[in-house]
Amino acid sequence: MTMTDPSQKALVPFVSVANMMRLINHIGVETMLRELSEYIEQDFKRWDAFDKTPRVASHSEVGVIELMPTSDGQAYGFKYVNGHPGNTRDGLQTVTAFGLLADVATGYPVLVTEMTILTALRTAATSALAGRYLTPQNARVMAMIGNGAQSEFQCLAFHALCGVTEVRLFDIDPAATAKVVRNLAQSGLTVVPCDSPEQAMEGAQIITTCTADKAYATILTDNMVGSGVHINAIGGDCPGKTELAPAILHRADIFVEYPEQTRIEGEIQQLAPDHPVTELWQVMTGQAQGRRNAQAITLFDSVGFATEDFSALRYIRDRIKGTDMYQPLDLLADPDDPRDLFGMVRRAGGLCE
Amino acid sequence: MTMTDPSQKALVPFVSVANMMRLINHIGVETMLRELSEYIEQDFKRWDAFDKTPRVASHSEVGVIELMPTSDGQAYGFKYVNGHPGNTRDGLQTVTAFGLLADVATGYPVLVTEMTILTALRTAATSALAGRYLTPQNARVMAMIGNGAQSEFQCLAFHALCGVTEVRLFDIDPAATAKVVRNLAQSGLTVVPCDSPEQAMEGAQIITTCTADKAYATILTDNMVGSGVHINAIGGDCPGKTELAPAILHRADIFVEYPEQTRIEGEIQQLAPDHPVTELWQVMTGQAQGRRNAQAITLFDSVGFATEDFSALRYIRDRIKGTDMYQPLDLLADPDDPRDLFGMVRRAGGLCE
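Output (structure tokens, whole complex):
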């Protein structure tokens, strides 16, 4: 080791996109969704342990860039994530993300990872985890409205965690639906492409909406939704972006991650600020009721909360141990004498010259 | 290019610690401090262009982890930074940092860089920039109280930007002082190690305090500070951490970066919330007066603001162009079809198997 080689303390494990894909294919998507959901459930069940704050958003006319920090006192995590609906027109992702986990005791990062793919996984794992508490008994059919980047993950999560056997697909773009049909061909799911939202919802006990327009859209109207269904609403996740007609919300028992955030970003931004909602963690700990009866309409108004990313970061930190699916990132300056930052820079120059 | 190779859009330029040190030694520390100060001044002078918010802090008993975001509408930047005074006991840095710059139009990151070293540079560049507006005419001697990781950068910045020719050093640990003496031996500065703060301040027109204890400390008492000096107070930068006796503050004209943040974190947390202060950007644009006369005591109550990191990120983005002093980081998942995230993962697995 020469003097310019970084010390071990300075190296942060980094999971690149390529390594995340290797990890997923190594573990298997459905196994990973199940394992992720366990980490997410653990953290929901110790809700009070977390330092919670609504995400820090920087809005522009074309999108949003957000930082989502949280801590349980031992570890600190945050995610950087953007949302730019117009990006797909230019061949870019609507949502990209990366995240970091750090040690609270020292402030040193212990993991940096891509989170574009990981976010799709954690969102699907959270949806299906909520589904385990909220879907009607023996729900086997799910309508998947919106067949974008997250839809396969949603379908597989409900398959793995909730016993869904059939997914009925609709998208305003048939090419998106065809893509999902192709991608799920070997999944064990019965996959039915549909020509309308109504057709997709035929016989479905679970309705997942995941569309991308940043606008008050009405993907589901009131008369499309009968009793005894569970709605998993993914797409309404920022101010001005909703998918459901308000009348549906008034008929539904509404479950949310973190009310302070969901009232700003979720479907319930359309409702009065004191409209009753139930917090998901309370359902998981048994402090609140989930589904009341077979006829109820339950709605998981998902916006994605920082603790879910924290759980996902914990999971990846644990899961890469002993593997070669990460690389050391020379991110932290760590001189032998912590007070001698300048000397470290100067000596590096001496050896370079 | 195979299908698992990331596309160009997915690759974010990354400046490691090793490359940052190469860049500094390539440009030269004093040149870099001057160039950095120009970027910082440009951004202070367009203060209204920035989306400003106090940093998002996560405090624990042993330290703090902070995110400092800002945007000018074109670019978005944030810095991750910790402050753990006890870290040096374990051979770790008190402060480590990294940062990111992104394109507001797409939300895609365009730079990830180490910022432990860069923060020391931007802090020193900001101090000396403020000094250009506030120090007494013909100030040539600076007392440097606290000889830790930032002190050499402060000395060189005042040398490069303010014409300081002599620095007088004091630290409670003589080894720290000896380190600075060693590191500045070839700098062109006259370097005088001193046995007390009082001795360090003999004949000094500029007093820089940069100590690290997270406590209400009194590095400078009232009777130590005569008229006609400029105080550059670096170390008081979080709640409960100050360096100056309140009586000094009452005698001084106080200049700050962003009052909303400085009143929480700076020396002025010891004063009434409406105590008059002057914003640095207003001095730079000529809207407010800097030094009133030769007798005034001026105080720059530095806490470090997000725009300064933004300026530093802009500078690094521009400065690495055409060099090999960065590496591509496979941080963003970028499938050929943005909606086909799942297919990208699946195909990567197919090629791996």
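The longest strand of chain B covers residues 75-83.
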